């Protein structure tokens, strides 16, 4: 049991505006998402919308601006390809334009900020959390949750989420979990309606459509949805980000409103631009 008076510091910090804010990356996205320690965050998106790519970009921005380290388990991506994309974003020019020494130097530099967990084998949630414990990273990625060897169903999901929550509470570190929506969210009834400027294109999945049920929405701190209109002539180059939950608004962040998105322009793969602002430009 906690001793009496332990909460006095928080109460006084809150009263006098001393609550530590989350970490920004230097663009309009900061109005909605900031990086915080000791969090369990969910990132939802359909297949092939560039969800992982956006995540790696966001991690790179946080890593370079705030000297944070990330540990990645990416079950569906080759780590050489991830590093290639990170280098291209960091340099702000096509990877094929880089000289050999530039590639070697950039790889060595960025490896300071990223650990990669072997994805040639499958892990149970318990085994993956044990791997996380071996890293000195500030935050961790499970991408995707469906790639783990796990129990299926409501009880299995809650068991995993409770373990992940215990990990972040005890370690003070953050876990991001990338996952997919149910098949229902990709059907005809989830298209933008007639008369909408994106009529006929697939809408972003609602948070309640997360595969495994609302336990993910219930147990997480922040819930982020990533989407892209992959068959639209021009919008296929824009990643739409919506924020469905921010548990602690006192430390920064805000939900986006219905049908409101942060537009992240692909920028030819050289690091997303948010309304013309490239957060990496001043960090290169």
How would you describe what is shown here?
The chain has 284 residues and is α/β, with parallel strands linked by helices. 28% of the residues lie in helices and 16% in strands. The protein has seven helices and nine strands. A nine-stranded mixed β-sheet has the order 3-2-4-5-1-6-7-8-9, with helices on both faces. Helix 2 packs across helix 3 (79-91) and helix 3 packs across helix 4 (100-110). The radius of gyration is 19 Å and the shape is globular. The termini are far apart. The model has no long low-confidence stretch (mean pLDDT 93).
Percentage beta strand: 15-25%
Structural class: alpha/beta
What's the average pLDDT?
93
Uncertain regions: pLDDT < 50 for 5+ in a row?
Answer: none
User: What oligomeric state best describes the polypeptide chains here?
Assistant: single chain
Helical proportion, percent range: 25-40%
The rounded distance between the terminal residues' Cα atoms is 49 Å
Shape from CA axes?
A: globular
Q: Strand arrangement, largest sheet? A: 3-2-4-5-1-6-7-8-9
Number of strands: 9
Order of helices and strands: HEHEHHEHEHEHEEEE
Number of helical runs? Answer: 7
| Largest sheet properties | 9 strands, mixed
Brief summary:
With 284 residues, the chain is of the alpha/beta class.
SSE inventory with pairings:
Layout: H1 8-15, E1 40-44, H2 51-66, E2 70-74, H3 79-91, H4 100-110, E3 114-116, H5 125-133, E4 139-143, H6 154-171, E5 174-179, H7 215-219, E6 222-227, E7 238-246, E8 262-265, E9 273-274
Parallel strand pairs: 1-5, 1-6, 2-3, 2-4, 4-5
Antiparallel strand pairs: 6-7, 7-8, 8-9
Helix pairs in contact: 2-3, 3-4
């Amino acid at each position: 049991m906690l001793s009496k008076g332990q909460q006095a510091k928080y109460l006084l910090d809150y009263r006098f505006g001393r609550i530590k804010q989350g970490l920004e990356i230097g663009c309009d996205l900061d109005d909605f998402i900031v990086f915080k320690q000791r969090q369990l965050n969910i990132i939802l998106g359909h297949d092939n919308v560039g969800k992982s790519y956006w995540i790696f970009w966001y991690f790179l921005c946080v890593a370079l601006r705030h000297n944070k380290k990330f540990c990645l388990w990416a079950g569906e991506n080759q780590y050489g390809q991830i590093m290639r994309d990170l280098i291209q974003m960091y340099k702000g020019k096509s990877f094929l334009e880089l000289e050999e020494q530039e590639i070697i130097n950039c790889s060595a530099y960025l490896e300071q900020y990223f650990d990669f967990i072997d994805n040639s084998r499958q892990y149970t949630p318990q085994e993956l959390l044990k791997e996380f414990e071996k890293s000195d990273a500030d935050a961790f990625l499970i991408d995707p949750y469906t790639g783990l060897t796990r129990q299926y169903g409501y009880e299995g999901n809650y068991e995993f989420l409770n373990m992940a929550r215990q990990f972040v509470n005890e370690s003070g570190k953050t876990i991001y979990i990338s996952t997919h929506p149910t098949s229902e969210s990709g059907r005809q009834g989830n298209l933008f309606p007639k008369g909408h400027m994106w009529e006929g294109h697939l809408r972003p999945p609602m948070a309640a459509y997360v595969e495994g049920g609302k336990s993910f929405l219930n147990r997480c701190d922040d819930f982020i949805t990533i989407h892209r209109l992959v068959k639209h002539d021009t919008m296929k180059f824009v990643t739409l980000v919506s924020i469905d939950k921010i548990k602690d608004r006192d430390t920064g962040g805000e939900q986006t409103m219905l049908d409101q998105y942060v537009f992240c322009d692909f920028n030819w793969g050289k690091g997303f631009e948010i309304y013309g602002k490239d957060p990496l430009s001043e960090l290169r």
